[in-house]
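Data deposition worksheet. Section B asks for the primary sequence of the deposited chain exactly as it was used as input, without tags or linkers unless they were present during the calculation. Section C holds the resulting structure in token form. Section D is free text for depositor observations; keep each observation to a single sentence. Incomplete worksheets are returned to the depositor.
Section A, Depositor: J.P.
Section B:
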Amino acid sequence: MTNIKLATYDSIVTNVVFGRKAEPLNHPIIGKIDATQIMMLTRYKTPTQDEVVDFIRESTLGIDLSRKIEPSKEDTRITYFLKSLPVSEIRDIVEKNGDGLQHLRNHYPESSLQEGRIYIEALNGIIPNPILDKAKRLVEKEGNVIYERAIEKAGTKEWNLRVRLLENGGFPDSLELEYLLDRGVRNSDVFRLRGDFGDFLAHA
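Section C:
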């Protein structure tokens, strides 16, 4: 697989996190702080409702149904949620009881994402270098999500772009994207753009 390269950006985490020098940020007490503009790329496929229900069912298989077990901090989020249910409901899910599975489907959240489609998402923001240095130290323990948290909690000029890829995994036609952007579209089936993206569009 060829590594992704972004013009003017250096790679921080191969194919995922990129950075380039930004204008210093002004802190009311410390003064100017060196900063880095971070771009984080994520590619994912949205599951179908059946796939989500199957995943939840598979997550119940390791739970002891002979007694009520309290959830713990060590549990994954899905296991924690399942252990919070009455044992009878967990058993319904394990045994594929119609009522139990229908209960899951009834509470399936609505989403603007289309089932089974592939998306690519870019998160961009400027963060102080001390925060970036801390993220680099924590990435092995916390994973790449540490950069996302750094942008969301300490970032400025943050923006997010999500693009739905074609069935073959390619990008939508650039003329289609330009047509939508020229008409001020910021949220559609093809893409969604949020945040402080003014400079990005000006130089796109």
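Section D:
The mean pLDDT is 84.
The two ends are 27 Å apart (CA to CA).
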